Amino acid sequence: MSETEYMIRGRGYLRNMRDLGNVVLKADTGGSGTPVLLKNVARIELGPDERRGIAEMNGAGEVVGGIALKRDGADALTTIGNIKSKLEELKPGLPDGVSIEPVYDRSQLIDSAIHTLKHTLVEESLIVAAVCVLLKASMTAAGGSTRCSCT
């Protein structure tokens, strides 16, 4: 068996499993006209209602999820800060046992990237300054003029 499973939700003429089994999948039009019914090719079972859209967090059971979106062109850190302050405003009004817990907070990633960029810019500026000083010192040591005489 292929273990392939199809879920069918029917409304209308299908009233029970027998009606579903009698659904014609294909009819032989060239010869005997014998129909191939769903019950001839499949095992039909009544199963539980499918639960869609559930999430589980850290193995502690089902939770409700939500996603906050920023508008196009908006500053990500400002948006995240506004969301955090709004969540703090909502906390006192939540029922007992209900909490709002951020799962993915990009502000730490953004702050880390900004810190790395600042650090790298300072390093590169110091390297450029050192190269300029060394270049000037080597030009002076070679007897060259450090002034530009353009006519």
TrEMBL record:
<dbReference type="GO" id="GO:0042910">
    <property type="term" value="F:xenobiotic transmembrane transporter activity"/>
</dbReference>
<dbReference type="InterPro" id="IPR001036">
    <property type="entry name" value="Acrflvin-R"/>
</dbReference>
<dbReference type="InterPro" id="IPR027463">
    <property type="entry name" value="AcrB_DN_DC_subdom"/>
</dbReference>
<dbReference type="Pfam" id="PF00873">
    <property type="entry name" value="ACR_tran"/>
</dbReference>
<dbReference type="GO" id="GO:0005886">
    <property type="term" value="C:plasma membrane"/>
</dbReference>
<protein>
    <submittedName>
        <fullName>Uncharacterized protein</fullName>
    </submittedName>
</protein>
